Amino acid sequence: MTCQTNSFFILSVIMIYFGHLGKSLNLIQLEDDMDQLKADFEANRSNVADGGPVFTHKLTNWTERNEKRIILSQIVPMYLEILKKADISKAHVRNLAEQLTTLNRSLIDGSNKMQDLMYLSKLQISDLKIQRKAVNEMYSVFQALQETSSFKRKRSQSLKKCRCN
């Protein structure tokens, strides 16, 4: 996939993922709007392909539905930020911004989960008080791990038991 089609691919994935296709979204209009936006940003320049894609390669690492919500909750606001730099008086910019704003509202839980990850990444694990609290919570963490792994194991075992002919 070329970098010229990356923005359309990302937006299409976002729209399909949230079920907006066939409801209120005109995919042909959206593609036209993105083509006009590419022209506005001169996205067809030869140096755009340098360094590879910005977002699409990250989407492949996030496979589960809730995981995708987390990564998309970070990508969609970046597109909205990009559109702030565009000429909002143009219809195609407004249409794309409206679609992304609507989708962004449905990603709030993904954003909250991302904030949880950011909180964990900033924990000062070298702090003795944090270590003591973590040790006190370790049993609960083991319980959560067991629930997660036993759920997956039960699900895979039930699939193995079924020998449908």
Fold and architecture overview:
This protein is an all-alpha fold. The protein is 69% helix and 0% strand. It contains seven helices and no strands. Helix 2 (27-40) crosses helix 5 (91-105), helix 4 (65-84) packs antiparallel against helix 5 (91-105) and helix 4 (65-84) packs across helix 6. The longest helix has 34 residues, at 128-161. The protein starts with 5 loop residues before the first helix and ends with a helix.
**Secondary-structure element pattern, one letter each:** HHHHHHH
How far the N terminus sits from the C terminus, by CA atoms, comes to 40 Å
Total beta-strand segments: 0
Tell the overall outline.
Answer: elongated
Instruction: Report the total helices.
Output: 7
Summarize model confidence as the mean pLDDT: 80
Radius of gyration: 21 Å
Estimate the strand proportion. Answer: under 5%
Helix/strand structural class: mainly alpha
